[in-house]
Write a structure and sequence with these properties.
elongated, 66% helix, alpha/beta, 2 domains, Rossmann fold, 10 helices
């Protein structure tokens, strides 16, 4: 049984989002050797790009709050206010550091078990085509091209599924049909993916 995942699998585990327990169970199956977990190399780097953006936004918010609170503190009615909000601004900074640590831990754990699909020339060429033919965003096209590249090396008799929360872009008839030609089922919830995976074992 081969289970393909992408960036949102890493993010669910790192940030303990709503489906992280299902992701944890899927990863545990891979760690036990019950399934083969596969993800594109791009899906390892993309969560870090997301973290950088989030961290930058929080840093900018922290700086704006600090400036506003400093201005308020110059007015007699609000002299004590900066101290009251100090913990909030401190949390903004700490949360970014903690998220980075959780992201590192999740990525390291996944990489110890998963097969990583490299971004090769043919994958990039296919991804460019999929932006038009499958109406995919550049990031999603790289993920999809990577998954298809790996699927082309597997047996159609082996049970396979691709789990992604990005139903807006991936859940379209052409993609469903194309994956089916490789015997791969597309699922848009990790809980459904976990259920399907267990049913195939």
């Amino acid at each position: 049984m081969t289970v393909y995942v992408e960036s949102n699998f890493v993010l669910e585990l790192a940030y303990l989002q709503e489906e992280h327990e299902s992701c944890e169970d899927i990863l545990h199956l891979a760690e036990e050797g019950a399934i083969s977990l596969v993800l594109p190399a791009y899906s390892v780097g993309e969560p870090y790009d997301s973290w950088v953006r989030r961290s930058k936004q929080r840093s900018e918010l922290h700086e704006r709050l600090a400036r506003e609170l400093n201005e308020l503190s110059r007015s007699k009615p609000y002299i004590g206010m900066p101290n009251e909000f100090q913990e909030i601004t401190k949390t903004l900074v700490q949360s970014g550091e903690e998220e980075k640590e959780r992201l590192d831990n999740a990525a390291t754990r996944i990489l110890e078990t998963a097969v990583v699909i490299p971004i090769e020339r043919e994958v990039i060429k296919a991804a460019i085509d999929f932006q038009q033919s499958r109406n995919l965003a550049p990031q999603d096209s790289i993920v999809y091209a990577s998954v298809l590249s790996h699927l082309s090396t597997t047996s159609t008799e082996e049970a396979k599924c691709f789990i992604t929360k990005n139903s807006k872009d991936f859940a379209n008839p052409d993609i469903y049909a194309e994956l089916e030609t490789y015997g791969c089922k597309l699922l848009t919830k990790f809980s459904d993916g976990l259920g399907y995976t267990r049913s195939c074992l």
